[in-house]
Write a structure and sequence with these properties.
- The chain is an alpha/beta fold.
- It contains 10 helices and 10 strands.
- Strand 9 and strand 10 form a beta hairpin.
- About 35% of the residues lie in helices and about 10% in strands.
- The longest helix has about 35 residues.
- The strands form 3 sheets. Strands 3, 4, 5, 6, 7 and 8 form a 6-stranded parallel beta sheet that branches. Strands 1-2 form a two-stranded antiparallel sheet.
């Protein structure tokens, strides 16, 4: 005997459809929350809000030398980059063991450590210098940038630094001191850069890298090799980077040489022929943002360098602190 099917009334049919739709939406939301939770566990810079929404906070480590650490009273390009992140509405956390510039009483730095000296990144390093008076109190000052640093040194330190200060992205600006202080030639500096990347990946296999090439500086008598070494290194670096990149750990070039207005004949954006003045700090920050936007899809547009009445940055020269290099530091050390 076949029982006749009961036809649902229109109101009951609508109610049943709404119920099924609600159940489906609930299952989709649960699946998405599970996926976001797993992503948050994989990505050190991601976290879950109380509403179950994924809010990525990018952990950025700036690795560099004096051009990144800055002297006492500088704004630093790190600050200009931090401003850009805020203007873009991008949550960011600068990480690293240091947070100051180089104070004016910094002693002379050795050209290179002795061959039998073990590197100790936790040893006393003078980083108690302040910033320009106009720098925001909210500025995230953490970094891993020290006067005189070479990638030949930092390649042996980066694993321990990342273990203590995990990062998602490294912004790297090293190389000049390797060639200027005879740690290595251009090819050897590229080799050190590759070792740096491998050691950093040992701490975080999903780490991303934005690596700046080396800018020129004004001519130094007796160092005719420097402009040549700089050009050779930059060409080798550009050629090597595609071979270093992986799907999980991309490596991208930052064209600092092309965007920093400094050359052997003149350096209008440097206060000593290389180290950035207020305008130079903007140019360095802009070079990095170009790569962040174009290669990593971080941000929607690169940093714009402000123009003020009387010329670029004429209103940004009121720096506190010294007017030159930290006392006792040779002007070729970065």
């Amino acid at each position: 005997m076949v029982l006749p099917l009961r036809r649902l009334s229109a109101p009951r049919l609508v109610s049943s459809l709404y119920f099924c739709l609600a159940i489906t939406c609930l299952l989709v939301m649960l699946a998405r929350m599970t996926s976001m939770r797993d992503a948050a566990e994989e990505e050190p810079g991601s976290w879950m809000t109380t509403h179950g929404l994924l809010e990525p906070t990018l952990k950025v480590m700036i690795v560099g030398d004096s051009m990144s650490q800055g002297r006492e009273g500088d704004w630093t390009w790190r600050f200009r980059l931090w401003e850009w992140f805020k203007d873009q509405g991008l949550p960011v956390d600068f990480v690293g063991p240091y947070n100051g510039t180089a104070q004016s009483d910094l002693p002379s730095l050795p050209a290179t450590p002795s061959s039998n000296e073990e590197p100790h990144w936790t040893s006393e390093i003078r980083t108690s210098g302040g910033y320009a008076a106009g720098v925001s109190q909210d500025f995230d000052k953490d970094h891993f940038a020290i006067w005189g640093r070479a990638v030949a040194i930092d390649k042996g330190l980066i694993y321990d630094v990342l273990a203590a200060y995990p990062a998602d992205l490294i912004l790297l600006m090293l190389g000049f001191n390797d060639m200027a202080w005879f740690h290595s030639d251009a090819a050897g500096t590229v080799d050190s850069m590759q070792t740096f990347i491998l050691n950093a990946r040992a701490a975080n296999p999903r780490l991303k890298f934005a690596i700046a090439n080396v800018p020129q500086r004004t001519f130094i008598s007796g160092r005719e090799d420097l402009p040549v070494s700089t050009n050779t290194y930059n060409a080798l670096l550009r050629e090597a980077i595609p071979g270093w990149t992986t799907l999980d750990s991309p490596v991208e070039l930052v064209e600092l040489y092309e965007n920093y207005d400094c050359a052997p004949i003149a350096c209008p954006v440097g206060y000593d022929g290389l180290h950035p003045n207020a305008q130079g700090e903007y140019q360095i920050a802009r070079a990095f943002t170009l790569t962040l936007v174009q290669s990593f899809s971080i941000g929607t547009f690169p940093l714009s360098i402000p123009i003020m009445a009387g010329g670029p940055l004429s209103g940004l020269s009121n720096l506190q602190g010294t007017g030159g290099l930290p006392q006792g530091v040779p002007d070729m050390i970065l």
